[in-house]
């Protein structure tokens, strides 16, 4: 039984809205590194049953890949409280994935939202 959820444009927003912590693996069936990363991702999903592990097949869901500017796969993205807190292309080794999950778990989301608000304010000033 897979502990990952297949994400589509139909269920993506609902999944990210309904869950505080979602990991997303952007992949394709023809991608060698994606195939290497799949068992690592699956194992992490089994070891973190409190988190949602989603997979986006970029071939079947090109709109989602485009919406997130995915240019190379696999790309791992972590969304907490509907904020993308991590995005990195490349197949992560197991230890690195475990580390990234730990770091994302330890984030203070109030601080993250403040930093985003400050960044957006600065960008607004520069644009004006």
UniProtKB/TrEMBL annotation:
Keywords: Disulfide bond, Electron transport, Redox-active center, Transport. GO terms for molecular function: protein-disulfide reductase activity. The keyword Disulfide bond applies. Transmembrane segments: none annotated. InterPro entries: Thioredoxin (IPR005746), Thioredoxin-like_sf (IPR036249), Thioredoxin_CS (IPR017937), Thioredoxin_domain (IPR013766). It holds the Pfam family Thioredoxin. Gene3D superfamilies: Glutaredoxin. Residues 3-106 form the Thioredoxin domain. GO terms for cellular component: cytosol. It comes from the Bacteria. The keyword Translocase does not apply. Belongs to the thioredoxin family. This is Thioredoxin. It comes from Streptomyces azureus. The lineage of its organism: Bacteria, Bacillati, Actinomycetota, Actinomycetes, Kitasatosporales.
């Amino acid at each position: 039984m897979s502990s990952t959820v297949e994400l589509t444009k139909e269920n993506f927003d609902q999944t990210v809205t309904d869950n505080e912590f979602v990991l997303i693996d952007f992949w394709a069936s023809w991608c060698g590194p994606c195939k290497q990363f799949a068992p690592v991702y699956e194992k992490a999903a089994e070891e973190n049953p409190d988190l949602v592990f989603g997979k986006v097949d970029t071939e079947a869901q090109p709109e989602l890949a485009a919406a997130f500017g995915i240019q190379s796969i696999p790309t791992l993205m972590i969304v907490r409280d509907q904020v993308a807190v991590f995005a990195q292309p490349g197949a992560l080794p197991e230890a690195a994935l475990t580390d990234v999950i730990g770091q994302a778990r330890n984030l203070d989301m109030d601080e993250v939202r403040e930093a985003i608000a400050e960044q957006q304010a600065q960008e607004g000033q520069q644009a004006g």
